[in-house]
Amino acid sequence: MSNVVKKELPENWAWTTMDNISDVVGGGTPISKEKRFYQNGSIPWLTPADLSGYKEKYVSNGARFITEDGLNSSSAKIMPAGTVLFTSRAPIGYVVIAKNEICTNQGFKSFVIKSDKILPDYVYWWLKGSKQLAESFASGTTFLELSGSKAKQLPIPIAPLEQQKRIVAKIEELFSHIDAGIEALNKAKQLLKQYRQSVLKAAVTGELLGYKFSEEMFKPIDFGLETLGQGWSPRCEKEPSPSEDTWGVIKTTAVQSLEYRQEENKRLPDSLEPRPKHEILVGDLLVTRAGPRVRVGICCLVKETRKKLMICDKVYRLRVKKGVILPEYLAIILNAPNVLIEVEKLKSGINDSGVNLTQNKFIQLQIPYPLIEDQKSLTQIVTDKVDSISRLDEDIEKQMLKAEKNKQSILASAFSGELGSA
Questions:
Q1: Which residues 6+ apart lie within 8 Å of 231 measured at CB?
Q2: CA-to-CA separations, 123 to 120, 128, 161, 415, in angstroms, rounded
Q3: CA dihedral defined by 242, 246, 252, 255, rounded to 10 degrees?
Q4: Cβ(361)–Cβ(346) under 8 Å?
Q5: Nearest CA to 45 among 108, 103, 89, 106?
């Protein structure tokens, strides 16, 4: 939107700054250890985290309320309904309108509109498209922050009141059509996800081959494994290994469902000697064995990889017995929802933030061992279907990206006088 600022406005418009049209108000946080500042509080208190994924224009409250004592103990201030709340750090650019009296933490620079000739909705839509503009006014080393003085200097083009009303109405009309399309695309994505799960589930039962696997075909996973080991987790540098000339250790995020991401690694320090026995090779099956519950038991097959990457301690490496089971087939089986339910039962841990999948339990997992020829056929069927699903999913992502770009285009047109002029 910074380019919009440079554009010439219609003759009855004028550029101004946010401090000319509003009082710029910061927020504050009562001491978190003082329960009396929060317990039985009645004053809505908002943080940027409360707006993550938030899609509505108006907000009534945040995740918590504070008390009068909490308010008076901090720099938080009660702002009236109609205040435009704008996050000024972590991240910059979330924006909502207060539906009622509310206060915020210090992650906001909020705008209390001074004049009834300026619509809060108009300011809201301007700021909605001004994330990059606001970031260009921000500073900071650890993270960008828009200071109060810089927030006051943010430019805004002001149209006559009646035009503001037409602009707001037109934006919301156009956005409603785009949002309806995005919602339909999201539903399509969900259906594709469900279809993918049904394909993988049918792989375990044999239905994709036209018959049902017998009980005799199910054996412990250990039956088909040549080796099962885990890697090494030295203290690595934060940045990834830049090339095949430098050793690196993969992070657990390198292992995704049926997808290996070699770029998810950390550089081994020059002071440490690599352990080549842990180097990842094509054909390795990787399974996450420790971490948050939702990230344990994830499996992928390494179809290609660069040299000098090692598995970490939180990942198992499986190598199969040739002639008994195909690695491609095993990767499909270990990603099937009905098998993942059984894997879930094998996990141990006190809470969901840290669980383990021990070798002793994992090798007991029962999976089907059809004939190698049937494994090949099933693998081809699943691969074809999953590839088709992935292509459709990519098309949907492109359409959603295009929809978001259309929104930005609409906002750029709106605040250069091309909408609402009639």
A1: 249, 250, 278, 310, 311, 312, 313, 314, 315, 317
A2: 5, 8, 12, 10
A3: 80
A4: yes
A5: 103
3-state secondary structure (DSSP) of residue 204: helix
**What's the Rg (C-alpha) of the chain?**
28
Q: Which of 414, 420, 388, 418 is nearest to 124 (CA)?
A: 414
Cα–Cα distance measured from residue 121 to residue 234, given in angstroms and rounded to the nearest whole number: 53
The two structure tokens encoding residue 69: 């004592």
Please, what sign has the CA dihedral across residues 40, 44, 50, 56?
positive
| DSSP result, 313-355 | TTEEEEEEPTTT--HHHHHHHHTSHHHHHHHHHH-EEEETTEE
| pLDDT tens digits along 135-178 | 999 998 888 999 999 999 999 999 999 999 999 999 999 999 99
Q: What does the alpha-carbon distance between residue 178 and residue 202 come to, in Å, rounded to a whole number? A: 36
| CA atoms within 13 A of residue 127's CA, in its CB half-sphere | 27
Is pLDDT at 193 greater than 70 in this prediction? Answer: yes
pTM value is 0.79
